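Dig into this one:

. . .
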Amino acid sequence: MLVALFTILILGGGGSGMLDFIAVTQDDVKAVMEKDDRRKQVLATLKAMKKRVTAHNKAFKQTSKDLDKALSTDADIDAIWEASFALRIKYNGDMLDMRFQLRDQLTRDEWQQIFASEQA
């Protein structure tokens, strides 16, 4: 139990907060944008973000299992940490790239309407 808590603390957890944020954003996009190709592109980007978050959460759970196993078998924990941090860096970069992609797909007015609660 202590290992799981430590893992969540260090790795940032595998919660559904980001998935909830994406779902709300998808709803906001549907409410703000007209039903056209631009909206399809924005929703496709959000779908890609959702897929990336899901994959990251799965990898996080596997890292947690690997750490738990490594602690009980005296395996190389440093290799697990390094792989985990590399995955985290890749995930953060991917999410940032997709956020910039969203920025380029939306007008300033649409962005402000969709992300109004974030800016308050």
The two ends are 38 Å apart (CA to CA).
